[in-house]
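From the methods appendix. Each design record in this collection lists the tokenized structure first, followed by the designed amino acid sequence. Records were kept in a plain field format so they could be parsed without special tools. The example shown here is representative of the layout used throughout.

RECORD:
FOLD TOKENS (131 positions):
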């Protein structure tokens, strides 16, 4: 797990990079340049919804070409503030799934949504050794 190095203004967003594709590595490297995000890397897809829920992510990013993580989609039913972002570099596509409806978003609006959150309160720190 990568943790933020420094203190940013506002709430640190917990982002789960679900899978080990090159595209997720690139996105993770870009997001890791700021202390605004706590990055959690988890190989897919053999995890239950309970295991993912224990990580308490604000956003789950996955590579669409690697398949849809069913456990992550199950979390949408219990957590309407969760954002699932599927990225497909082959066709230059980003898909957003959320427990609430959003209008079509520009790249800037999508970035603001990831960074700004959805109004949920701060999450408790993860326990050491939790994975």
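DESIGN:
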């Amino acid at each position: 797990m990568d943790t933020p190095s420094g203190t940013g203004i506002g709430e640190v967003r917990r982002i789960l990079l679900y899978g080990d594709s090159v595209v997720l590595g690139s996105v993770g490297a870009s997001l890791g340049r700021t202390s605004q995000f706590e990055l959690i890397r988890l190989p897919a897809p053999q995890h239950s919804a309970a295991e993912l829920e224990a990580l308490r992510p604000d956003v789950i990013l996955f590579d669409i070409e690697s398949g849809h993580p069913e456990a992550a989609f199950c979390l949408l039913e219990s957590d309407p503030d969760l954002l699932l972002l599927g990225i497909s570099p082959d066709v230059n596509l980003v898909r957003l799934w959320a427990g609430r409806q959003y209008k079509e978003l520009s790249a800037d609006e999508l970035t603001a949504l990831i960074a700004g959150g959805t109004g949920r309160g701060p999450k408790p720190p993860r326990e050491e050794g939790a994975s």
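APPENDIX NOTE: The first helix runs from residue 22 to 31.
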